[in-house]
Specification:
about 50% strand, twelve-stranded antiparallel β-barrel, globular, alpha+beta
């Protein structure tokens, strides 16, 4: 009986071990090893903004702004997140500009920008990024004979964002310096810009992963070589932002602007309110 019990135990043990080994083998055979996702070092983004003011005929009150932004990771493994690239931009109005000739009657080409950007910090949920842009003075406007010679301009940007549940709070700030060779031109009635400062604060509520309600306020200030020409603007906008498919963002908003940062000028008359009210449609698509 003892021998029979021992033999039975050995058979059961062998069967158990064999079954376990077979399961292990099957698990190993079914395991699929996926290669890690390799992100492209390139990023390409296109942007189109259509603006319509509340007053005037359609062709007078509607305009487009657009840009194409191409960047690439550089010094990978040496400086984390460093990217460099270029941005080309322009605008068009649907009313003919009779002071220009050819295609410049309808289109305005802005100075292209050479860009270097990098994440700055990620502390307690606050994420900050920084950019340095140099605008190369090659646009037609910068080649006008009645403008002071220009060495382009330099813009430094700092943007900070924080997510709080379904809310996102963000701020965007930049300082731009225009590098003109001469301080002033006495023959001109007005002077060129010397500095430009902008600060924006935005708040978004994410209704779903693809829909967000957005509002924001921004202030912009220009310092000229002649103090009498200093100017500024205050603007508030509110609207909705959609992400219908991967890579595409669409936004529609209404904006109110106060010339020279004076709200009283916006409220002054019915005409002033209409002149400083408009709507925007923004489309942005990331190709890579």
């Amino acid at each position: 009986m003892k021998k029979l019990g021992i033999v039975t135990l050995l058979v059961v043990s062998a069967a158990f071990i064999g079954h376990s080994y077979a399961e292990h083998q099957t698990t190993e055979q079914q395991t699929v090893v996926t290669a890690p996702e390799v992100k492209s070092p390139w990023s390409v983004k296109g942007f189109l903004r259509t603006t319509r003011t509340a007053t005037g005929k359609l062709q007078d009150g509607i305009s487009n702004e657009m840009f194409l932004d191409v960047r690439r990771s550089v010094l990978e493994g040496v400086v984390s997140g460093l990217r460099a690239g270029v941005r080309v931009a322009g605008s068009n109005r649907f009313r003919t500009d009779l002071t220009r000739s050819g295609w410049e009657k309808y289109y305005t080409v802005f100075d292209p920008a050479v860009i270097v950007g990098k994440p700055l910090f990620d502390i307690a949920g606050f994420g900050g990024v920084g950019e340095l842009r140099y605008y190369v003075p090659v646009s037609p406007d910068n080649r006008l004979s009645d403008r002071n010679p220009s060495n382009g301009s330099v813009r430094t940007i700092v943007a900070v964002e924080k997510n709080i549940g379904k809310w996102t709070v963000g701020t965007y700030n930049f300082v731009q310096r225009y590098a003109f060779k001469s301080e002033d031109n006495a023959l001109k009635e007005s002077s060129n810009a010397k500095y430009r400062l902008a600060n924006e604060l935005s708040l978004a509520y994410h209704v779903t992963d693809k829909v967000a309600l957005v509002t924001g306020a921004g202030v912009e200030k220009f310092w000229m070589h002649k103090p009498s020409d200093n100017a500024g603007e205050l603007e508030w906008s509110t609207g909705v932002e959609l992400q219908p498919v991967s890579g595409l963002t669409a936004g529609a908003s209404v904006f109110l602007s106060a010339p020279n940062q004076a709200i009283a000028k916006y409220l002054e008359t019915k005409e002033s309110r209409l002149q400083n009210t408009g709507a925007r449609l923004d489309l942005a698509y990331s190709f890579l």
